[in-house]
Hints:
Layout: H1 3-17, E1 26-27, H2 29-39, H3 41-61, E2 67-77, E3 82-83, E4 96-97, H4 104-111, E5 115-129, H5 133-200, H6 207-242, E6 251-252, H7 267-277, H8 279-300, E7 305-317, E8 334-344, H9 349-417, H10 423-458
Parallel strand pairs: 1-6
Antiparallel strand pairs: 2-5, 3-4, 5-7, 7-8
Helix pairs in contact: 1-5, 2-5, 3-5, 5-6, 5-8, 5-9, 5-10, 7-9, 8-9, 9-10
Amino acid sequence: MTKTTRHATISFLLGLCLPLSAGAKPYTLAELLDMARKGNPGLAASAQATASIAAQLLAAKRSWMPTGELSSLVAQAPRIRCYDDEGRRNEDSCVRTDAVGYDASGFLNAITPRGVFTRTEIKLVQPIYTFGKISAGVEAAESGVKASQSKEGGLLADLELNVRKAYWGAKLARAMLATLEEGKGYLEEAQKKIDQELADGSGEATVTDRLRLRAMRAEIDARILEAKRGAALARSGLRALIGPDAPADLEVDEEDLAALEVPSRTLAEFEDAALRSRPEVKAVESLVASKRALADFEWRRQYPDIVLIGTAAYAYASSVDTPHNAFANNPFHTLSAGLAAAFRMPLDLGVKNAYAAKLRAEAEEVEQKRREALAGIAFEVEKAHTELQEAEERIQVVQKGEKAGRQWIAAVAQNLAVGLAEARGFADALLAFFQARMRFLQSIHDYNVAAAALTRATGIDVAAP
């Protein structure tokens, strides 16, 4: 079998073995990442949390707007008439009225509906000067929004890392399956050769050789099942990361597994990038600023507020007279408005002072955690950078063994076909080919995953120029 024919056979077998349905659409890594960003429920929930904090910021900014209340009521009204000294109804000289509530008849008069009473009252309070309370509240809310947005960016980075891992895992499983199918082709040819020699009684093949190849065939079949399982799990993981709207027949693109091209940078450059771009760094810095602004806000709550208070009221009762007297308090007939400057100050200063101290301590606690997080991020960057370098060097080393293993199995297979090699030598060559090829593919996978981990650790796409 020529090399071209063998590759065509392998491609055909992969088409049968890989779970690619006729309607399956292959997706590139960029497409999978975009689908995950749009469909992942956890990311959507994080966006809603940010929207909630943004609403708090809007409320803080609107604290300069006037506040107050409007009340309006409609009720029954008693009959109240004004009489002068001579017992005539007279609103200008009202010296007595109908009895209301002083005796049984007055009580009955008060509860017996004689007309309609309505009263509308409005009160507005406009802040003039709050000694920095509003600006401190706005600053705290703005920092809270930034912290939530950065936290959302961290969740997105985690999601993208997991998508990349699943993508490269699917690629690795497919490449391993192709290798196993290629080795299976060599093995089938060797089995046919051994079976023919045993049937004809020609050559030096033995029953032991046949059993040896059958045992290896069982091992290859088991490895193929494992590779299929790995590919299926990778696709299931991608669907879970994308969300409930992920296509059921999702499949990664058909490009061969290959190492990414990562531009060379020093460890110090990666660490600087992490300090500039890592979402967690921005989140903890914003959280510190928010805590300090909250502490300042609570401290300023001990100061007074200078406000303007405006009031207006209107009341009318259809069955109640209106005495013409500026000193008479008539709750049934009112038309008034007023504007006053006021001074408001809380008196629980001890409690507010203690709570402000509590918030300052929490701000310092977050600051210390920020320093701790920076040290942890530096370790993550160094770890990912070390793994990337090791995988790159490993690729160069095992690639030589992979080429030698491929040449070895090809030569032994040809010699076996013409009776110049033994089954034992063929089995050794096939095993060496499998080991070298698998280690080479695993090294490429590890390199790409290390690049993804370094991207997560630094906050930048390390594979980008």
